[in-house]
């Protein structure tokens, strides 16, 4: 193999690795990922953990080729949905998720060496895996990074530090920015990228070009423009989930000049040949905690990522790096660890599945308590962990499924073979890394789509795509469909469900009705005024720009969502991305709606009472039903409140209740709870055993006495502290605030134009008196 800077530490590495854990620090392009696994394999079997699937495959293929063996014999890999390895492989490359599942099964007993490559990326699963390996103490550990501070990591892992100095090839760095401290920005990003590309290509003497962009959207836009404006170059997109064709094109030299538009997948591990120029936008999309939720947003990269990206230009020859931000831009030193900026449901379940409690694990940094507690509560509600935070049998069934824990739970709660198949296929479609399908904006395509899927239900769409049915009006990404189908096949196999080719009938309504009952947090109701927004009583989601949820539907099961930063510093905007319309009656029949007693009506001399059903503070339906004993007391209270029964009774008792509450405050007596007329009168009816309107006819208002201010005091007290004051041309209500000795007068009615005068009012000695006029409180002089 080629002599690289890492070779300078070979003898020291080989002498130390059998005795001590090692932290290897060397610049990007020094050969860490390709040389260290082979050196360690001379002493035992090696598991190499790479942060990304594309790196696992590329490194395994490269080392197998260089060693002259078939892939999967001496050197192999295992990622989600794909693997080529045997138990006799000396080196196996895996993603962190696969490593955690293998640790759960046998503590990685067949490996002597565990190498965690590119540890500086600080994924949650690599952090947990390192903590587990530290505790288990059965393997020699090799931790590599080009940028992380090696001292704290070495102390944590009880490791020695080996440093490979130097870079094989130099990289000249330049900046394009208005001033030296200009931060990365997405303003006119595509135009700035294209302008830089055109200028450098016109200058000549440039090999292949690697352009770092934050996401697939920007890559797609830049690739389309470049194909038109620079027809002589070969344009290649590179991101998570990219097709094997594009991946191979990026990793294989070409006689034609290439421009590779990539996300962070090209930042580490991968060697893309013939790159002589890197153009760095300085941007990435990453998660962070905002107002209690994990949001995905566009952010500036760290200084460590900046160096990693520039280093891509010096892997196989000398190169240049052009940064579209200032030389002294105040970037963070390192990207914050995922455990500090994401929800911890997956992390808590993974730790529990491996026999540990995440909150008790010694990690490099402490965990945010709010996120940790929220994750534990979610998993307890699922039944995945018990009250002591230990894994349950149900949790052990959830963890191995190669999907999000919440999706696994969704599959598990649904009963019935055909129903489970439906949810598996929906979840598989939602689990691929990018948008699986899109609907054309043309009227013809939309009409065609609605003839095929008249409810515009994403359950129907996703299941049809996964099962290979004709989907009218849609544009489907075939590569992503294959990935989703492979995932559906794997989950079906693990759950002993029928093969995809012989799927059961789609049971849309049956599945949705079960989910409404068993996962009520997925049930959302449309806002009455903001029609694009939906709420479930705890959270709000809005429809995505490309959603085709029809306006005739008022409720939905929301299968998937993601959060983005809102306009304010603490606001978040949660987008619903997969919705299925449901009937309002399903919410009521499932018991989710809150039933409130409403008005009584006379229907042909037959008295009925309104049952008002509310969900997420929205009235869904009103049913008028015959009175029962359960409804009698609310019905009588309602009739009295309306004045149909005992017309003047309510006002008298409300005055007495308000006076009593003020009386208690003035005398230093704390009331256990606030008394309302409705709660007091309902208690009186229950105490007297009144169970029908006929019973009520036997009583008058003198039978319902409020036991408050003593009878000999109440008249004088109400005169001293009236609740209403009638003055010439104005009527006022009075609010008392005993703690601050303040009285507030509120306008009720009247034509008076001038202010209220102190001499017109009762003698309230020692009280500050204010009059509320418009939105201001004015002192009464």
From TrEMBL:
It comes from the Bacteria. The keyword Nucleotide-binding applies. InterPro entries: DEAD/DEAH_box_helicase_dom, Helicase-assoc_dom, Helicase_ATP-bd, Helicase_C-like, P-loop_NTPase. Pfam families: DEAD, Helicase_C. PROSITE patterns: HELICASE_ATP_BIND_1, HELICASE_CTER. One of its GO terms (molecular function) is hydrolase activity. SUPFAM superfamilies: P-loop containing nucleoside triphosphate hydrolases. Residues 13-166 form the Helicase ATP-binding domain. The keyword Nucleotide-binding applies. Keywords: ATP-binding, Helicase, Hydrolase, Nucleotide-binding. Residues 188-362 form the Helicase C-terminal domain. This is ATP-dependent helicase HrpA. It comes from Aliivibrio sifiae.
């Amino acid at each position: 193999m080629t002599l690289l800077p890492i070779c300078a530490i070979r003898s020291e590495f080989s002498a130390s690795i059998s005795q001590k854990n090692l932290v290897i620090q060397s610049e990007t392009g020094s050969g860490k990922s390709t040389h260290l696994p082979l050196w360690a394999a001379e002493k035992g079997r090696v598991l190499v953990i790479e942060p990304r699937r594309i790196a696992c495959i590329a490194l395994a293929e490269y080392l197998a080729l260089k060693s002259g063996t078939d892939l999967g014999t001496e050197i192999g890999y295992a990622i989600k949905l794909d693997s080529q390895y045997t138990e006799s492989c000396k080196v196996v490359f895996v993603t962190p998720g696969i490593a955690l599942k293998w640790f759960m099964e046998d503590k990685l007993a067949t490996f002597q060496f565990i190498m965690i490559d590119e540890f500086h990326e600080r994924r949650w699963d690599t952090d947990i895996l390192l903590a587990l390996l530290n505790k288990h103490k059965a393997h020699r550990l090799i931790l590599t990074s080009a940028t992380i501070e090696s001292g704290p990591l070495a102390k944590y892992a009880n490791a020695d530090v080996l440093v490979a100095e130097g870079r094989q090839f130099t990289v000249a760095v330049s900046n394009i920015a208005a001033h030296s401290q200009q931060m990365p920005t997405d303003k006119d990003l595509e135009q700035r990228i294209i302008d830089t590309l055109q200028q450098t290509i016109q200058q000549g003497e440039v090999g292949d070009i690697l352009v770092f962009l934050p996401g697939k959207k920007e890559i797609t836009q830049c690739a389309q423009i470049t194909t038109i404006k620079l027809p002589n170059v070969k344009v290649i997109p590179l991101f998570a989930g990219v097709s094997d064709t594009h991946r191979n094109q990026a990793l294989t030299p070409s006689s034609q000049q290439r421009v590779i538009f990539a996300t962070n997948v090209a930042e580490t591990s991968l060697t893309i040949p013939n790159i002589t120029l890197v153009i760095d936008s300085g941007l990435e999309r990453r998660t962070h905690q905002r107002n209690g939720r994990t949001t995905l947003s566009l952010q500036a990269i760290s200084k460590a990522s900046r160096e990693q990206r520039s280093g891509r230009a010096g892997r196989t020859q000398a190169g240049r790096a052009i940064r579209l931000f200032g030389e002294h831009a105040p970037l963070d030193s390192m990207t914050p660890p995922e455990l500090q900026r994401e929800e911890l449901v997956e992390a808590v379940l993974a730790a529990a599945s491996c026999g540990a409690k995440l909150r008790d694990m010694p990690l490099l940094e402490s965990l945010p308590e709010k996120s940790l507690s929220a994750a534990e509560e979610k998993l307890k509600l699922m039944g995945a962990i018990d009250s002591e935070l230990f894994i349950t049998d149900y949790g052990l069934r959830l963890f191995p499924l190669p999907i999000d824990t919440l999706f696994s739970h969704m599959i598990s709660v649904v009963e019935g073979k055909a129903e489970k198949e439906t949810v598996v296929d929906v979840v598989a479609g939602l689990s691929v890394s990018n948008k699986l399908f899109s609907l054309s904006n043309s009227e013809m395509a939309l009409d065609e789509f609605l003839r095929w899927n008249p409810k515009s239900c994403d359950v129907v769409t996703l299941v049809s795509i996964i099962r290979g049915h004709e989907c009218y009006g849609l544009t489907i990404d075939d590569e992503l469909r294959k990935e989703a189908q492979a995932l559906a096949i794997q989950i079906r196999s693990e759950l002993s469900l029928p093969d995809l080719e012989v799927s059961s009938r789609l049971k849309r309504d049956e599945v949705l009705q079960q989910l409404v009952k068993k996962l009520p947090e997925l049930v959302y109701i449309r806002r009455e005024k903001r029609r694009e927004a939906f709420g479930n009583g705890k959270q709000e989601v809005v429809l995505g720009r490309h959603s085709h949820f029809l306006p005739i539907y008022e409720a939905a099961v929301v299968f998937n969502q993601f959060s983005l930063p809102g306009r304010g510093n603490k606001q978040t905007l949660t987008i619903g991305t997969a919705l299925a319309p449901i009937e309002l009656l399903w919410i009521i029949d499932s018991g989710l709606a809150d039933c409130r007693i409403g008005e009584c009506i006379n229907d042909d001399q037959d008295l009925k009472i309104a049952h008002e059903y509310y969900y997420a503070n929205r009235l869904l339906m009103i049913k008028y039903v015959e009175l029962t004993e359960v409804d009698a007391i609310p019905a009588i209270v309602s009739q009295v409140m309306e004045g149909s029964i005992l017309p003047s009774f309510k006002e008298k008792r409300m005055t007495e209740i308000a006076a009593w509450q003020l009386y208690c405050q003035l005398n230093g007596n704390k009331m256990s709870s606030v008394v309302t007329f409705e709660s007091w009168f309902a208690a009186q009816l229950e105490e007297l055993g009144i169970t029908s309107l006929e019973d009520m006819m036997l009583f008058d208002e003198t039978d319902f006495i409020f036991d408050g201010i003593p009878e000999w005091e109440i008249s004088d007290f109400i005169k001293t502290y009236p609740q209403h004051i009638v003055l010439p041309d104005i009527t006022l209500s009075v609010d008392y605030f005993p703690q601050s000795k303040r009285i507030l007068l509120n306008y009720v009615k009247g034509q008076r134009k001038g202010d209220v005068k102190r001499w017109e009012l009762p003698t309230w000695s020692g009280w500050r008196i204010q009059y509320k006029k418009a939105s201001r409180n004015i002192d009464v002089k």
